[in-house]
Write a structure and sequence with these properties.
Elements lengths: L9 E2 L3 E5 L5 H8 L2 H4 L10 H17 L3 E7 L5 E11 L4 E8 L8 H15 L5 E6 L4 H10 L2 E12 L2 E11 L7
Parallel strand pairs: 5-6
Antiparallel strand pairs: 1-2, 2-3, 3-4, 4-5, 6-8, 7-8
Length: 185
């Protein structure tokens, strides 16, 4: 993918999805230090602002390389980042990317993750010319499985010992959505 000239902000009814900057480090630390949030992310809970600055640098690096992009999720009436959603392993040649997301626990169960996910999926199919979006989810992470299934993803199968994180091999379910299956209005 050729890197877009400028990071595009996405807006929904309740949310603004925007570029994450180093000024958001404290906001990220507030939720990425929560073991419940990071449990299925393949990451240990963050303990320092430096951990979150490294995360912001990773967001910047995947954008600069054209292999992904990550939006900070904020509520329209406040500019504090409460989660993130975005693409990684983006390959223009094959018109596909992997989607990922996380949200501060205080905002679980309010439809915020679903709203952000819909906006990012729409952007992927309508602006990034993707044909396939994948989601890789640990079998124990039933809330994320329910969210992607509700959004229209189909479970394709189990990838055994697919990822090595936190000193162990993890199985991951492969979910996908094709452009023709997503309602683009």
């Amino acid at each position: 993918m050729n890197k877009p000239i400028k990071f595009q902000t996405l807006k929904t009814e309740r949310l603004v999805l925007r570029e994450v900057t180093k000024d958001d480090a404290d906001s990220l630390l507030a939720y990425l230090s929560d073991e419940e949030v990071t449990r299925h992310m393949g990451l240990a809970p963050f303990t320092t602002v430096e951990d979150t600055l490294d995360e912001v640098e990773w967001y910047n690096s995947i954008f600069d390389k054209g292999t992904g992009m990550r939006w900070g999720i904020t509520l329209k009436d406040e500019d504090r980042v409460i989660g993130s959603c975005g693409f990684l392993n983006l390959t223009q040649k094959h018109h596909r990317a992997e989607i990922g997301f996380e949200l501060s626990r205080e905002h679980w169960g309010k439809g915020i993750a679903a709203e952000a996910l819909q906006a990012v999926i729409y952007h992927g199919f309508s602006s990034l010319n993707l044909n396939r979006i994948e989601a890789l989810i640990e079998p124990a992470n039933s809330p994320s499985q329910k969210l992607v299934e509700k959004t229209g993803f189909l479970r394709e199968g189990l990838l055994r010992d697919y990822e090595y994180t936190q000193g162990k091999f993890d199985d991951l379910y492969m979910y996908s959505m094709l452009k023709r299956e997503f309602e683009i209005s």
